[in-house]
Amino acid sequence: MDKNDIILTYGSDPVAMTRALLEAIDIESLILDKNSSIALKPNLVVAATAESGATTHPSIVREIISFLQERGYSRIKIVESAWVGDSTKEGFRVNGYEAISKTFKVPLVDVKDDDYEKLTSNGITMEVSKTILDTDFLISLPVLKGHCQTAMTCALKNMKGCLSDRSKRMFHNLGLHKPIAALNAIRCADLVIVDSLNGDLDFEEGGNPVRTDRMFAARDSVLCDSFGSQLLGFELEDIPYIQLAESMGVGFTDLSKARVIQLNEPTNDKVAHPSGEVANLARYTLPKNACSACYGNLIHALKRLDEVDRLGNLETKICIGQGYRGETDKTRIGVGVCTRGLGKSLGGCPPKAIDMIQFMKEL
Ligand code: SF4
């Protein structure tokens, strides 16, 4: 896997998806020494299960450990800390990490109990986990989801769980963006495997999961977040820490130079039942056998329109899904190649949320 690659897979089985990604990544070419220390850094910001849209699916963690151990890597740890005020250990317990730890003999490291090293980057001094700093190969496992302060969280922001609680508080005082970029300039992930199965619409603590049945991997955290931001319908300018990280030499934002390797097609094998705020946005849609990635992108696009008070301008519901193949009703509007026969349609399979926003703004 090259530094500018993004490997993407769709499905509803995180075990099979993780294995497919790991095989495509060719991890043995990235970690040459089998004696390397490897840290897996999931997102357990709160003690909630993955179904909430907040935390990394434990099956991903389990499958990565199994895959690595099969290939002779034995020095693996799971390293994480919950946000200030929540218990990491409770997050480990709720998500079954104690069983994973026991089965695979992999230690759980709660960064809240760790030693820290005080380091300064771009004028910001912070306390970073010694375990993370001493790790040879860091695999970050963020959830792609919305965030009430930074708009989005993915690879770059997932690193915040490698700090002391005191530094986390200080990051909030400084407005998050510059410190997040500065932290990644000290230590960023060597490999990112993103859980984009059902990340939350707008809050990192979950509650409004949006099913997208998608995972992707990247080696460049900046490129990874740049790609993720488009999937959620954001412009780069909406998430300042991404370009700040680029300016600090962490990676590159230019997706035109990325090679996106798609391992399979999106699926529509399970019907999503939106609830809460997602159900509210779903009122603007007319789905018929829509793939979850496509439908999830539409929900995120509608959310972005709502944020700029443009949702009320939509005079018609948006058709989406494989059920529109062959339909030629010229009074209807749709997104995705399946709706190409309708009066107006946006191509793509699935189209990105950012393109859906532009399409709906022009209606
Ligand atoms: S365009 Fe059709 S086939 Fe492609 S992702 Fe959307 S619903 Fe699925």
Question: What is the element layout, followed by pairings?
Answer:
Elements: E1 5-10, H1 14-25, E2 38-42, H2 58-70, E3 76-80, H3 88-94, H4 97-104, E4 108-110, E5 116-121, E6 124-129, H5 130-133, E7 137-141, E8 145-147, E9 151-153, H6 155-158, H7 165-173, H8 177-186, E10 191-196, E11 214-218, H9 221-231, H10 240-247, E12 259-262, H11 276-282, E13 285-287, H12 292-307, E14 318-320, E15 333-335, E16 344-346, H13 353-361
Parallel strand pairs: 1-12, 2-3, 2-7, 3-4, 7-10, 13-14, 14-15, 15-16
Antiparallel strand pairs: 1-11, 5-6, 8-9, 10-11
Iron/sulfur cluster binds at residues 266, 290-291, 293-294, 321-322, 336-338, 349-350.
Summarize the structure in words.
It is a single chain. This protein has two domains: 5-262, Rossmann fold, CATH 3.40.50.11440; 276-361, no CATH class. It has 13 helices and 16 strands. It has helices at 14-25, 58-70, 88-94, 97-104, 130-133, 155-158, 165-173, 177-186, 221-231, 240-247, 276-282, 292-307, 353-361, and strands at 5-10, 38-42, 76-80, 108-110, 116-121, 124-129, 137-141, 145-147, 151-153, 191-196, 214-218, 259-262, 285-287, 318-320, 333-335, 344-346. It has an eight-stranded mixed β-sheet with strand order 4-3-2-7-10-11-1-12, sandwiched between helices. Strands 13-14-15-16 form a four-stranded parallel β-sheet, with helices on one face. β5 (116-121) and β6 (124-129) form a beta hairpin. The protein is globular and about 65 Å long. The structure holds iron/sulfur cluster.
